[in-house]
Amino acid sequence: MHIHILGICGTFMGGIAAIARQAGHRVTGCDANVYPPMSTQLEAQGIELIEGFSPDQLLQFETMPDLFVIGNVVSRGNSLMEAILNQGLPYISGPQWLGEQVLYGRHVLAVAGTHGKTTTSAMLTWILEFNGYKPGYLIGGVPLNFTVSARLGDSQYFVIEADEYDTAFFDKRSKFVHYRPRTALLNNLEFDHADIFADLAAIETQFHHLVRTVPGDGLLVVNGEEVALERVITRGAWAPVERFGQDLENAWSLVSQASDGFIVRQHGKEVATVAWAPDSGVMGRHNQLNALAAIAAANHIGISPKDSARALAEFKNVKRRLETIGVANGVTVYDDFAHHPTAITTTVDGLRRRVGKARILAVLEPRSNTMKLGVMKAQLPGSLMAADKVFAYGASTGKESLGWDLPDVLSPLNQTEAGKALAFNDLDALVNVVAQEARPGDHILVMSNGGFGGVHQKILNAILA
């Protein structure tokens, strides 16, 4: 079958492309921005890429593709999509294609939640791989224990990062309702995606739709510390529920250790100890909970906590999760995907646990749709309080510009310490100020869910200049 994918260069759709190619299909695709590393990865797998969404590309094929797979970046008015509709060509969403053609009949382990989906999915996939289960997987990032973000796999097991964002312009259900998991891991739940959800209750409803799809002999692994998830489960659960969290009242709990590792407890009994590799890049309480959840999910398919702990001792995290980019004159620069205030808080906390009293200079770009709408702006100062200095960037014009006053929002930080937070609308100016402020022993934590104009390397270069 010839599949043509619209929006192929996103992490999720690129993963679908790789899986379809591994399944033996001819795969082509197009996107508005075709560039490395995704373009390089796809082309290396024999996938032909076309720049843009011109309907003229339909004339390039000797025979018309058998099916068009549509990413949620595509909306009505897209010229290629309009041509597909006008010509009555067959199309389907990415999640639905994946659910019907890849996940059907397999034991799906789905990882859902506002935060930590990518890291927890990578942990769970690595646990299965380490223990010989040869899983298929699709992860919204590049797990460093693997060379690609998705694969078809050689067993009945498939691990998927289960996103609550909508499926496509013609299917406004959350992506994860297409996955039909047998093991569903609900990591946490907060308000996010303000561009498509009116409030937290609307997201809770989508999570309950996911819960409704889990069979009676499946398992729900649920964060016992999340009030919103408790409301979801209270609405009805037809599969067993195992909760995880810090406290002994949960089926799965933990005891933190000074090394940032932890002891795993199952029904109050110590059953394993997780010790991260020194170069893993894994740190912070949030990652302890991510790992605990992965251990509980793996236990459902027969992998003991001790075997999971052995796997996690060799876990290498995911790119853009407190990833060390470089060191210049004794200053370390990190990259992290954090963009929601809760994720910013846990990321800063995780780095603080690792570096102790050393200075942390936080460099932030609040560019997610939710942040640009200003829904979470009041929580931003509190999320950055544990950093020593804050440098934030907000474009003043263009589609990435903020709809609110960044200096004003950050002003509470300067009330606690004069000059603690600075706001910029010029990226070069931000780079120069950060480089001048940095001194040996400092840790510069860059946080954004985008490329941030290559600011990481620019800062390193400026420090060395």
TrEMBL record:
The protein's Enzyme Commission number: 6.3.2.45
Mur ligase central domain sequence ranges: 111-298
Residues given in the record as ATP binding sites: G113, T114, H115, G116, K117, T118, T119
Reported cofactor(s): Mg(2+)
Protein family according to the UniProt entry: Belongs to the MurCDEF family. Mpl subfamily.
Reaction catalysed by this enzyme: UDP-N-acetyl-alpha-D-muramate + L-alanyl-gamma-D-glutamyl-meso-2,6-diaminopimelate + ATP = UDP-N-acetyl-alpha-D-muramoyl-L-alanyl-gamma-D-glutamyl-meso-2,6-diaminopimelate + ADP + phosphate + H(+)
Protein name: UDP-N-acetylmuramate--L-alanyl-gamma-D-glutamyl-meso-2,6-diaminoheptandioate ligase
An individual GO BP term: cell division
Organism of derivation: Polynucleobacter asymbioticus (strain DSM 18221 / CIP 109841 / QLW-P1DMWA-1)
Superkingdom assignment: Bacteria
Record function comment: Reutilizes the intact tripeptide L-alanyl-gamma-D-glutamyl-meso-diaminopimelate by linking it to UDP-N-acetylmuramate.
